[in-house]
Amino acid sequence: MTEVVVHEMKYYGGKVNLNIELVNYSDEYYNDYRSICCDCFRELSIATNLNPNSFYTQDEMNKKKFNVFIMFIEKEIIGSVEIHENIIDHLFVNPKYQNKGYGKKLLFFAISRLQQAGIDEITLFVADLNKKAIQLYLNNGFKCTKTIIDNW
User: What is the C-alpha to C-alpha distance for residues 90 and 81, in angstroms, rounded to an integer?
Assistant: First the structure.
């Protein structure tokens, strides 16, 4: 186990209205989804002494498929975001599409969806090592509300 600094962040921005088409996870996406997710979190996994190729099984993914939303361009996965109750989780963008605004679109999709469900307190957690993600969140209405040391 490795000690990791994790920030809890809450959304204090305004109302978001973003209607983009994302699809829920299904088994047909498993291999591509797994590969892209592992690539996106590789540096973080290595820095925290986790296996960068460790991933959910297909059964585990199926259990959360209604919470996992995937963005495509044609048939290629651009990125994904998970939404659980009031929490935004596992937001990632395919490395070849990073720095083109897709992370912000995924983030706003999740915020909009939660707001449409009547949820006012939107939360996410981010490792301090993930500086790009922290900046994305800070630039788009999130504020750090708590910092903890977690064991991964």
Answer: 6
Q: Quick one: tokens of 49?
A: 């002494």
Count other C-beta atoms under 10 Å from residue 12's C-beta.
10
Exposure b/e, 94-129, CB count within 10 A at least 16 = b: beebeeeebbebbbbbbbbbbbeeebeebbbebbee
CA distances from residue 144 to 7, 25, 87, 139, 140 in whole angstroms, order as listed: 6, 30, 14, 12, 12
Please tell me the predicted confidence (pLDDT) of residue 130: 95
Of the pLDDT bands very low, low, confident and very high (cuts 50, 70, 90), residue 3 is very high
Q: Where are the beta strands (DSSP E) in 25-86?
A: 68-73, 76-84
Provide the residue type at 115 as one letter.
Q
How far apart CA 141 and CA 130 sit, in angstroms, is 17
Predicted structure pTM score: 0.95
| Residue 87 φ/ψ, nearest 5 degrees | -110, 130
Phi, psi of 124 (to 5 degrees): -145, 165
Residue 75 C-beta-side C-alpha neighbours within 13 Å: 3
